[in-house]
């Protein structure tokens, strides 16, 4: 029995990434609301729930860390049915995660796939520790840490351990995004211009999403909020 839930018929190729860029701008606006304490929690009322009973069509997919401090729908201030979200510690890819992301492309014509890492990531910290000690944790945890360690081993040393950890967080998000761009089931949509895969980093202290592939080192292009007093 087929399990794929088709949304609408596949549309023409995105013109110069227009739709993906527009959806990223929408995420930027939501993140600005979130970090300035102005979240509006859109599309969560009874009408939206009824609308989604028989059909969903999220054009944005997010692969994020499982960290409880980084819930994507809240970080981007999005509503029900807006994002197809998959979470794993350190954004580690396995067959189940990859199958879920491919499902999003097949079922919902994903236009933007965000790989969302964050500072102080426990999985990345564990991989850095494994690099320093030469030992992996046992069992399934060792598998997870080992996947991140493959990226950590490629990162140049930094002036401080904190800077090295953050460089590893950024490198991991970029590496996962690059792998996804070439993954069977996803690469055709990327090559045809129907989908963009973009790595990002969430800053816990500033509540801000930074897009890692921007030439400017971009942080969404929206000014930071003024410091709150009181």
Summary?
With 230 residues, the chain is of the alpha/beta class. Helix content is 41%, strand content 13%. The longest helix is centred in the last third of the chain and has 21 residues, at 161-181.
Written overview of the protein:
It is a single chain. The chain is of the alpha/beta class and 230 residues long. The protein has one domain (15-29, 58-211): Carbonic anhydrase (Beta-carbonic Anhydrase, Chain A, 3-Layer(aba) Sandwich). Helices cover 41% and strands 13% of the residues. The chain is built from eight helices and five strands; from the N terminus they run ααβαβαβααααββ. It has helices spanning 18-35, 46-51, 72-75, 95-108, 122-133, 139-152, 161-181, 187-191, and strands at 60-64, 83-87, 112-118, 196-203, 208-211. A five-stranded mixed sheet has the order 2-1-3-4-5, with helices on both faces. Helix 3 (72-75) links the parallel strand 1 and strand 2. The longest helix is centred in the last third of the chain and has 21 residues, at 161-181. The protein starts with 17 loop residues before the first helix and ends in a 19-residue tail after the last strand. This is carbonic anhydrase. InterPro entries: Carbonic_anhydrase, Carbonic_anhydrase_CS, Carbonic_anhydrase_sf. It catalyses: hydrogencarbonate + H(+) = CO2 + H2O. Belongs to the beta-class carbonic anhydrase family. Residues 16-30 have a biased composition (Basic and acidic residues).
